[in-house]
């Protein structure tokens, strides 16, 4: 980068519990195309983390390869990041998480990264219930390699060069639901009011949290006929519910009429407050969530919002019975059984 | 003719020097009986080696277990015909009869007659009605099957003069905690022993005699050594995907961890093992954990190495410690999955695209599998790069007589250049890829260490010294040159080659590595008998230390002995040390079986004879 952001902080900027402003959660200046949906996601992450008062260095930013996977450069400068290889972020994040379960793992991937080359790893990380936030910036094309159709492109759409998507799309939310993700949401990068509380809740959630974020590619997939352009998405989005995230410390006041909202208590005591736009909306029914997604799709609509949440899910570490001390901090005396034990082991081979 | 008579053909007497081969059917439970046989000989103080020759199949196909007894410690595969064959597999019976050396013995189940046309008159037949005995003595069908194997071991004890008491203690040790199994096993041994004593003139001319040559050595397979070495080396995270012959590395690691790594207070695990969806994920997990400061490894074999290549390049370029235990088998492709080779040398040394190079270690015994796998974690942490251990099927899956596993409690894990929060506080500024010490190895920070210092982006893309993305040519070149410098540092850290020079000065040097070692002392003996003294050097690691180049310089004729078709180590030596390839001659074996001393020595003699056609080699 040839220029840097100003370090100047306005005195009037609000500070969080750690005394940090949202600027302390920013990253480098984005090199993505002006107007790229991925930048809005970065900005939502900055707000979510600042509002949650997470220490930035306790977050690990994980990604694969693609424009979307570059995005972690553009938020959380004080966090370690890891741009891995194309499609394989889930395995690297799994290893990182096994090594230190005490960090927050925020992962960014693209629809090419996750639904094509990385579909296998995506499926398996969901299955393993890794405690992480997995965000896919879904633009229906390959941005970084300049506009090829992605496996999430809707059947029949055309990319900029005129190639038609001949096959059914892969819906990563439906897959995540089917594979047992305990938190599944779909958002639109242009709708911060929805995206920020959902990212916050995903972070607070202990377990695998998946957010598919429709994130238009202004350069290669913003043309008429695309089903991922800003205009198309804005016109076809329906929201099942508006979600608020209420941190543990805040008093819960009932401003909303009884019956029109639902509070779901998360692991750390914070609440997901769901204002139902659709009265049938039920975030605890996995099967219904799958059907809802498909039904909306058949009507040409994109259902957004929190689709499913199981606040009682177990994480990989709980299932594996891993010790409380992170693996990368366990001392040698607990890891190495020592000379004497080796003596008896040798004896067993004589 | 087949009247259970041993005295048809004369046999030369041979004490503690012969080969016994068991021909069995996969899945019939012969492994533990065969192993008991080899161990009994070891417990009598006599050097012995055992090799499993098994098909890529679960049940029904022929398997052989070849035991070489040799008090001169020539324990490599001998090759040639076999003195004693225990022929228990109808499928391989014809071939097994042919495999008996003239004057040798065929021990077979005489519950059925051998067809006349298969009989040879230059070998001895030892018929024991094993099935009939089992049918009579045991009720349960599984026992009838299993005890067949124990019966022939009992018979061999009488025939070869194995001390019965040694076998009895072995049974006791084998079934410790399952006492109910001891009595019937000992009974089956006795049945065989009695039958042989009553029907043949025991012992045979091939027999064993107690010695005191074993010392404190153990008999164990290399994969157990590797798995246990990883426990001792402090590995906590493992991602893996099953593949023969590496699977048991992780299985052993897991079982030792279950015993030794459960926190007594909480019952929780100080390890995490994930059976990944494939090898890509397996090494990805190990790399993620290495990046985050845990010691991690994966184990695989040839096809897995191919899949891991992209990630190995990432770990090399992004400088992440990770250990990969490669148990080589016969390639290319799926090749011969259950046969041995040393054919991944180049694939591993240069795994991945671009100018990538990896640190390799070449263990030659279970003890060294242990040592190298523990050491690999220190090396990869210190060098911040993948370290690949190049074991193979022969070493990994066969039991070998080995020095005991050694660990010294004074050994402290060397985590390399990882900055603590205090060190970061005291630094003016941090740059991930700055070569502060001039050894090519930079300082790293772990996620979560410091609130506002030391965070950086890890990537496989080019960057400057401060880990900021950069495509500037100068930045890229500087980085690549530093990685070369680091590789030179690696050459000083890995185990030195083991050089053995004789009393006579000689122009001929042998270079070998890994399991080829087993054939070397015998090779030298055979060559010496022909008046060809040789020096030898065992390579223990890559990059090569300066001693390797020196050894080659000091010898006019250098042979590189290896078990692959293309002379991969020879290529690596000539490429890396810039040596004229004509200075190096290859001795190769790539049939999936271990190379033999006979083959090596005759190949060498052949080359020498060709060079000096008028001179006779004596
Ligand atoms: C093994 C491998 N194959 C191909 C590529 C080239 N490549 C880089 S990014 C990309 C697609 C990115 O698309 P997506 O994940 O949808 O992200 P976007 O750029 O659209 O945000 C491809 C094919 C690569 N880096 N590695
Ligand atoms: S190409 Fe598309 S996805 Fe990539 S940065 Fe530009 S707008 Fe974003």
From TrEMBL, chain A:
Source organism per UniProt: Thalassotalea nanhaiensis
Record-given protein name: 2-oxoacid:ferredoxin oxidoreductase subunit beta
Keywords: Oxidoreductase
Coiled coil regions in record: none
Keyword Acetylation: no
InterPro entries per the UniProt record, alphabetical: 2-oxoacid:Fd_oxidoreductase, PFO_beta_C, THDP-binding, TPP_enzyme_TPP-bd
Pyruvate ferredoxin oxidoreductase beta subunit C-terminal domain location: 273-320
Chain ranges of the Thiamine pyrophosphate enzyme TPP-binding domain: 65-213
Domain of life: Bacteria
From TrEMBL, chain B:
Domain of life: Bacteria
Keyword tags: Oxidoreductase
CDD domains per record: TPP_PYR_PFOR_IOR-alpha_like
Pfam family, one: POR_N
Entry keyword Disulfide bond: no
Domain Pyruvate flavodoxin/ferredoxin oxidoreductase pyrimidine binding: 229-392
Residues covered by the Pyruvate/ketoisovalerate oxidoreductase catalytic domain: 27-194
Official protein name in the record: 2-oxoacid:acceptor oxidoreductase subunit alpha
């Amino acid at each position: 980068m040839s220029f840097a952001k100003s370090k100047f902080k306005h005195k009037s900027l609000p500070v969080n519990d750690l005394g940090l402003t949202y600027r302390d959660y920013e990253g480098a200046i984005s090199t993505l195309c002006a107007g790229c949906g991925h930048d809005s996601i970065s900005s939502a992450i900055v707000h979510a983390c600042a509002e949650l008062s997470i220490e930035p260095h306790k977050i690990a930013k994980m990604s694969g390869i693609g424009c979307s996977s570059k995005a972690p450069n553009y938020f959380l400068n004080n966090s370690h990041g890891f741009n891995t290889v194309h499609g394989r972020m889930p395995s690297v994040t799994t290893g990182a998480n096994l090594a230190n379960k005490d960090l927050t793992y925020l992962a960014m991937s693209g629809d090419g990264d996750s639904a094509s080359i990385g579909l296998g790893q995506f499926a398996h990380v969901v299955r393993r219930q890794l405690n992480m936030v997995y965000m896919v910036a879904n633009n229906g094309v390959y941005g970084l390699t300049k506009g090829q159709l992605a496996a999430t492109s809707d059947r029949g759409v055309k990319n900029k060069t005129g190639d038609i998507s001949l096959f059914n799309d892969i819906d990563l939310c439906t897959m995540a639901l089917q594979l047992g993700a305990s938190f599944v949401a779909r958002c639109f990068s242009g709708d911060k009011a929805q995206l920020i509380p959902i990212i916050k809740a995903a972070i607070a959630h202990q377990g695998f949290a998946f957010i598919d974020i429709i994130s238009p590619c202004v350069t290669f997939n913003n043309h008429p006929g695309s089903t991922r352009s800003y205009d198309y998405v804005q016109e076809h989005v329906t929201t099942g519910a508006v979600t608020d995230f209420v941190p543990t410390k805040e008093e819960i006041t009932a401003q909303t009429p009884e019956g029109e909202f639902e509070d779901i208590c998360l692991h750390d005591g914070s609440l997901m407050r769901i204002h139902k736009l659709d009265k049938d909306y039920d975030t605890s029914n996995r099967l219904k969530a799958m059907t809802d997604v498909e039904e909306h799709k058949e009507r040409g609509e994109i259902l957004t919002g929190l689709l499913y949440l199981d606040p009682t899910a177990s994480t990989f570490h709980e299932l594996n019975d891993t010790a409380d001390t992170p693996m990368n901090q366990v001392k040698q005396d607990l890891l190495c059984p020592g000379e004497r034990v080796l003596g008896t082991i040798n004896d067993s081979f004589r | 003719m087949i009247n259970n008579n041993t005295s048809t053909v004369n046999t030369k007497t041979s004490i503690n020097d012969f080969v016994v081969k068991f021909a069995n059917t996969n899945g019939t439970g012969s492994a533990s009986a065969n192993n008991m046989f080899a161990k009994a000989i070891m417990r009598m103080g006599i050097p012995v080696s055992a090799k499993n020759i098994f098909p890529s199949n679960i049940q029904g196909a022929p398997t052989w277990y070849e035991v070489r007894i040799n008090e001169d410690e020539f324990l490599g595969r001998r090759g040639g015909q076999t003195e004693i064959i225990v022929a228990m597999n109808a499928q391989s019976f014809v071939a097994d009869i042919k495999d008996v050396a003239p004057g040798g013995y065929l021990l077979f189940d005489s519950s059925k007659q051998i067809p006349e046309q298969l009989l040879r008159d230059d070998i001895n037949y030892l018929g024991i009605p094993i099935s009939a005995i089992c049918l009579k003595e045991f009720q349960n069908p599984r026992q009838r099957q299993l005890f067949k194997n124990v019966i022939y071991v009992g018979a061999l004890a009488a025939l070869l003069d194995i001390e019965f008491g040694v076998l009895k203690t072995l049974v006791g040790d084998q079934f410790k905690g399952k006492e109910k199994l001891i009595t019937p096993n000992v009974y089956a041994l006795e049945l065989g022993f009695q039958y042989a004593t009553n029907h043949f003139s025991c012992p045979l001319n091939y027999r064993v005699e107690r010695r005191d040559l074993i010392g404190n050595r153990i008999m164990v397979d290399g994969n157990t050594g590797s798995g246990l070495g990883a426990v001792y080396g402090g590995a906590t995270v493992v991602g893996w995907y099953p593949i023969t012959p590496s699977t048991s590395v992780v299985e052993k690691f897991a079982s030792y961890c279950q015993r030794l790594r459960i926190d007594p207070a909480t019952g929780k695990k100080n390890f995490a093992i994930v059976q990944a969806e494939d090898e890509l994920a397996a090494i990805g997990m190990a790399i993620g954990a290495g990046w985050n400061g845990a010691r991690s490894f994966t184990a695989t074999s040839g096809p897995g190495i191919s899949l891991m290549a992209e990630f190995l390049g990432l770990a090399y370029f992004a400088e992440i410690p990770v250990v990969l235990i490669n148990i080589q088998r016969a390639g290319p492709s799926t090749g011969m999955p259950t046969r041995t080779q040393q054919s991944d040398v180049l694939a591993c040394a240069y795994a991945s695209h671009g100018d990538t190079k990896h640190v390799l270690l070449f263990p030659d015994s279970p003890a060294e599998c242990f040592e190298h796998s523990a050491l690999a974690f220190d090396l990869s942490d210190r060098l911040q790069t993948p370290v690949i251990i190049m074991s193979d099927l022969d070493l990994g899956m066969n039991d070998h007589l080995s020095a005991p596993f050694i660990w010294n409690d004074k050994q402290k894990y060397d985590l390399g250049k990882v900055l603590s929060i205090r060190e970061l506080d005291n630094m003016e500024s941090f740059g991930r890829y700055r070569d502060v010490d001039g050894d090519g190895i930079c300082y790293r920070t772990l996620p979560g260490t410091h609130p506002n210092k030391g965070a950086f982006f890890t990537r496989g893309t080019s960057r400057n010294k401060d880990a900021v993305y950069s495509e500037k040519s100068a930045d890229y070149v500087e980085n690549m040159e530093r990685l070369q410098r680091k590789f030179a540092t690696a050459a000083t850290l890995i185990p030195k080659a083991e050089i053995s020079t004789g009393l006579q000065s000689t122009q001929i040097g042998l270079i070998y590595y890994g399991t080829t070692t087993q054939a070397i002392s015998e090779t030298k003996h055979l060559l010496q008998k022909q008046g060809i003294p040789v020096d030898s050097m065992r390579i223990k690691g890559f990059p090569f230390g300066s001693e390797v180049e020196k050894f080659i310089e000091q010898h006019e004729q250098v042979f590189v002995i290896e078990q692959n078709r293309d002379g991969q180590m020879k290529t690596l030596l000539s490429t890396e040390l810039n040596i004229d390839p004509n200075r190096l001659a290859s001795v190769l074996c790539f049939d999936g079986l271990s190379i033999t001393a006979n083959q090596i020595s005759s190949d060498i003699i052949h080359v020498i004879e060709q060079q000096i056609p008028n001179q006779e080699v004596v």
